[in-house]
Design goal:
Putative FAD-dependent oxidoreductase. InterPro entries: FAD/NAD-bd_sf, FAD/NAD-binding_dom. Pfam families: Pyr_redox_2. With 363 residues, this protein is an alpha/beta fold. It folds into 2 domains: 196 residues, 3-Layer(bba) Sandwich (FAD/NAD(P)-binding domain); 147 residues, FAD/NAD(P)-binding domain (3-Layer(bba) Sandwich), CATH 3.50.50. 28% of the residues lie in helices and 25% in strands. It contains 10 helices and 21 strands. The strands form 6 sheets. Strands 1-6-3-2-10-18 form a 6-stranded parallel sheet, covered by helices on one side. A 4-stranded parallel sheet has the order 13-12-11-17, covered by helices on one side. A 3-stranded antiparallel sheet has the order 7-8-9, with no helix packed on it. Helix 1 packs parallel to helix 8. The radius of gyration is 21 Å and the shape is globular. 44% of the residues are buried. It binds flavin-adenine dinucleotide. Flavin-adenine dinucleotide binds next to helix 1, strand 3, helix 6 and helix 8.
Amino acid sequence: MVSSASEEPPRRREKRVVVIGGGVGGSLVAKSLQSFADVVLIDPKEYFEIPWASLRAMVEPSVAERSVIDHADYFMSGQIVCSAAVDIRDGKVLTADGSRFPFDYLVIATGHRDLVPRSRSERLIQYRAECGKIKSANSILIVGGGPTGVELAGEISVDFPDKKVTLVHRGSRLLEFIGAKASQKTLDWLTSRRVEVILEQSVDLTSVSDGTYQTSAGETLKADCHFLCTGKPIGSSWLRETILKESLDSRGRLMVDEQLRVRGHKNVFAIGDITDIPELKQGYLAQRHAEVTVKNLKLLMTGGRESKMATYKPGSAIALVSLGRKEAVAQFPLITVIGCLPGMIKSGDLFVGKTRKQLSLNP
Ligand SMILES: Cc1cc2nc3c(=O)[nH]c(=O)nc-3n(C[C@H](O)[C@H](O)[C@H](O)COP(=O)(O)OP(=O)(O)OC[C@H]3O[C@@H](n4cnc5c(N)ncnc54)[C@H](O)[C@@H]3O)c2cc1C
């Protein structure tokens, strides 16, 4: 049920759980708790999107048919509120459309903020437009050398090898969120696919004229179009004026305890990229946080003792970045590898089938 009314709907069950953020972690919590509590899922968009399939969807828009999933498809028994949370006050969450949602338990999963369309159909149209832009360009500039920029460069260079791709990155190496070995291997891979990688420079996107771009070092680049792939801001700015402001660390992350409760708040949990857990910010870890939180909420809602709550141990530094349809670079705790072997793990279906299954959907 999608709702944006300002009146609270009648409650069916005793405990009310409000989940803020319908991304990787929040969608799983909402789906898993829907038959155990009155669950409200608050998200500014009507759909959950599998983030790691988004760059493939730019070169093959039909992928988005499976990776962009209406919340209503996996979350049938709760209430979906299509608005942004703006405050938490007096045991209620306030949303931008003026509604209030009381809770017994709150789960905050607002990961990263992204400016994407509200409806699934608009998002699918956007992917088709982006693909059209790629297809009609001879030369493409990618700004940003994190996972998004690297994966996009990989997709374009594999699917459209005749296009001239230039990737400009402000930092001294690509993929700075993982180790230097992975960066070097990725740089070599992209260069071997004729992607021009320019490090330690930025691009002034305000002064683009006639396909001419200026870099911070005064270089001139020519491209038919560009894609901005710089990091998205963490989705916690809205918490700065709430009762949780004291629980934010200096980087704007919510400090949580071992049970994933926000420090100082026994009935508020936080999961995913927004937490201060010392580990890489990865979706598979957000899913683990979701599983621990679901266990703990079920225990608390059935009167279980706090001492029996499940605890979470930070994950090890594993990351997989796809490089087109068959290859990838993978960082494991003791080894970094690139090529078809890690590609077999991720790059074919990009875990889309697996993620859909986790939401009890047809893969
Ligand atoms: C290109 C790329 C590739 C990646 N590849 C992988 C991979 O292969 N494997 C992997 O494990 N991880 C990968 N990741 C990382 C992964 O996507 C993130 O770690 C994961 O999305 C974090 O999940 P989350 O639930 O914390 O937040 P998100 O998935 O970012 O979801 C946040 C949700 O909160 C909503 N929101 C934001 N603000 C508000 C508000 N005020 N009120 C209500 N809702 C709000 C947003 O709309 C969104 O739905 C990749 C990331 C990128 C960018």
